[in-house]
Amino acid sequence: MTTTLISAADLYRRVDHVVPAIEWATMADDVDAILRLKRERNAVILAHNYMRPEIFHGVSDIVGDSLALAREATTVEADVIVLAGVHFMAETAKLLNPSKTVLIPDLRSGCSLAESITAEDVRELRRLHPGVPVVTYVNTSAAVKAESDICCTSGNAVRVIESLGVPEVIMIPDQFLAANIARQTGVKVITHPGACEVHERFTPADIRQIRADYAGDVTVLAHPECPPEVVDEADYAGSTAQMINFVADRRPKRVALITECSMSDNVAQEYPEVEFVRPCNMCPHMKRNTMASIRRALETMTNEVTIDADVADRARAAVERMLAVGAK
User: Could you tell me how far CA 275 lies from the centroid of its own chain?
Assistant: First the structure.
C-alpha cells in the first residue's frame, strides 16, 4: 500500500505521454481525493491490465492480469479493496478476502463472457458428461465457480489441465480459449459457446492487414481468447501478463497486441523504445471504471461485493486449487 504523500501533480509524470495535460487537469481533484481516501480508509486499489492509463499508472496500488490480481488479493493488509476491473474480478477478491470490504466502482462493469454461463448450465454439463472434471475460467461468477472442480486463467490453463492427469475435461465458458488450450495439451476438451466480446471480433484479416501496413516488420501477440484462426496468424499467444513478459524479454522493434485497447498504452509506458501498433477493440465494461467512480466508491463505501456463504465456500475452494497449481 502507498504510504508516501503524493499529489495529482506528482502522478502526472507517470502518464504524461498518454494523457494530455488538459485532460489530466479535469481529473486532478478526483485523484487528490482518492489518494486522501485511500489513507483514511486504509484502502488499496487493484487494477486490471485493461484499465485506463490514468488508473493503471496513477492511483492503483497493484496491477496485473486476472491471475496476478487473484494472488495479490491474498496478500494485502488493507481493510478495503477497490477492484478496478469487472464484477467477477471483484468477486474473486472477496472470495480470497472474506473478512475485507471489497468495492467495485460501477455495478454495470459486467463481462459478456461471465454472463454467457450460469450455475445451472454447469450442472447440465455435469449431467451430460458424468465424472468429467470441470475447469472453469476465472472470468465467471462465483456461482459458476462454485459448481466447478478447479479454476484457471489464460496464463495457467495448460498447467491446470495437465495437473488433473485425465484424458478429458469440461472447460468453460470460453469456446476459443478452450480450443486453443486443447491444442497445447492433447486433452479432449468439452466446451461451452461463450466468448469475449473484445477478442471474438478480431479476425485473421485484421492481422494480415497489420503485417501489410508495416511490410511484415511487426511482431503480433494475440490473447488466447481470440479465435484459433487468429492465434494461428500471430507470432505468439498468451495472457496479458505473458504478453508483457514477451515484450520485456524480446524488446521487439514494433509490436501489435491483439487484445483490449488500453493494454498497449499501459505497456508502452514501460518500454518507450518499442513502437506499439494499436489495433483497437474496446471493452465497454472495463471503461466504466473512472477516477470519478473510484472516488465515489471510496467516499460512500459502495458498491460492496457480497457472496452467499455456501456459494463462497465452494467457489473459494475452486480458486484455491488453481492457486495451488501455480502459473508455470
Answer: 23
> Residue 169: which of 227, 184, 155 has the closest Cα?
184
C-alpha cell at 294: 473510484
**3-state class (DSSP) for residue 137:** strand
Question: In this structure, are residues 26 and 286 in contact, taking their beta carbons and an 8 Å threshold?
Answer: no
Helix (H) or strand (E) holding 70: helix 66-72
* Integer CA distances (angstroms), 259 to 105, 166, 173, 237, 267, in order: 23, 31, 18, 11, 12
Q: In this structure, what DSSP letter does residue 165 have? A: -
259 within 8 A of 253, measured Cβ to Cβ: no
**pLDDT band, very low/low/confident/very high, at 202 (cuts 50, 70, 90):** very high
Sequence-ordered strand ranges (E) for the chain? 43-48, 62-64, 80-84, 101-103, 134-137, 150-152, 168-172, 188-190, 219-222, 236-237, 254-258, 275-277
- Segment 250-289, tens digit of pLDDT: 999 999 999 998 999 899 988 999 999 988 789 999 999 9
| Crossing angle of helices 21-41 and 291-300, rounded to 10° | 20
Q: Which of these, 207, 196, 198, 203, lies nearest to 277 by C-alpha position?
A: 207
3-state secondary structure of 308: coil
In degrees and rounded to multiples of 5, residue 50 shows phi and psi of -90, 5
